[in-house]
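Q: What residues go here?
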């Protein structure tokens, strides 16, 4: 953490964004967009080597990038990591992106450990990070939660993942109301299928099962979602985008995909 976070003892060079789950996929793509726009960026994740690699890539591109390694499920680790960041680095934009799906079993065959991982990461992890940062964030700051089409429409085999993303939708709404008097805006992005490491994680490293998810249609890229997040992050102060539902052109709902015949 020391070398990755070297630089927290000085002021950020630009406006600051703190992104959870920036070692891969949507979070990483958002970090790239942020440092290219001249913002100071804090990237986080559990995999220290990946955090270091993203920090190095950002700095090589001339970005002002710091890294923190922690698991959003570990409340003490979250408090220690965020507590180590001086107020000057309190984010103007907090992107609560870290999340995952694990398994596609129907609920009567669900795996308890998978359920715990999803609930603890997607719901409690988002809360842990928000609880540590929000008291230190100023009027005009924004929180952007990464929800999902799975938080709008349930699908077979999605039960607990659906429940966690419906929870993100509810939290986004309630957080917006709670934080209204403080002038902190809260929005979410709700993507359909995005080709990232998401399915590899969901299918526990089974590359065949993961790539089959995206066969026969063109999924969103991480950059497409990062683009929406960054649009929300950079609106004028009087504009709050509540929700961006963003889908591949070939996807009409959680269960309607137009796959080409193979
Ligand atoms: P990736 O698997 O590529 O990225 C997930 C990121 O979350 C990684 O950086 C990972 O980092 C981090 N992460 C996971 N668990 C934890 C944890 N316990 N503590 C800290 N960081 C964690 O997937 P995506 O980019 O696709 O996913 C990002 C978000 O987008 C998730 O919330 C997901 O639910 C949501 N989403 C994804 C869609 C898709 O189709 N891909 C569609 C709709 C929403 P590390 O492993 O280093 O900790
Ligand atoms: C990820 C999209 O449809 O795989 O949130 O649940 S889906």
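A:
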């Amino acid at each position: 953490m020391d070398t990755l976070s070297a630089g927290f003892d000085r002021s950020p060079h630009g406006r600051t964004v703190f992104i959870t789950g920036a070692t891969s996929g949507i979070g990483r793509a958002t970090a790239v967009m942020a440092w290219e726009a001249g913002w100071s960026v804090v990237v986080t994740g559990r995999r220290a080597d990946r955090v270091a690699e993203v920090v190095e890539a950002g700095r090589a591109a001339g970005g002002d990038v710091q890294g923190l390694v922690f698991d959003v499920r570990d409340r003490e680790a979250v408090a220690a990591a965020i507590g180590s960041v001086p107020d000057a680095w309190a984010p103007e934009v907090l992107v609560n992106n870290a999340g995952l799906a694990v398994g596609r079993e129907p609920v009567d065959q669900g795996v308890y450990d998978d359920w715990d991982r999803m609930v603890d990461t997607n719901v409690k992890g988002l809360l842990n990070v928000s609880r540590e940062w929000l008291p230190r964030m100023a009027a005009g700051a924004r929180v952007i939660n990464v929800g999902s089409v799975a938080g709008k429409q349930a699908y077979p085999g999605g039960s607990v993942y659906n429940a966690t993303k419906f929870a993100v939708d509810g939290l986004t709404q309630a957080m917006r109301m709670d934080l209204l008097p403080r002038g902190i805006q809260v929005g979410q992005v709700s993507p359909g299928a995005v080709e990232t490491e998401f399915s590899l994680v969901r299918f526990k490293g089974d590359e065949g099962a993961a790539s089959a998810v995206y066969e026969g249609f063109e999924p969103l890229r991480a950059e497409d979602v990062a683009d929406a997040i960054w649009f929300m992050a950079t609106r004028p102060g009087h504009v709050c985008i509540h929700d961006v539902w963003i889908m591949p052109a070939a996807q009409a709902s959680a269960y309607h995909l137009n796959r080409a015949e193979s």
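A: Context that may help when evaluating the design: The two ends are 47 Å apart (CA to CA). The helical segments are 25-36, 48-60, 75-83, 112-133, 159-179, 198-202, 207-212, 222-233.
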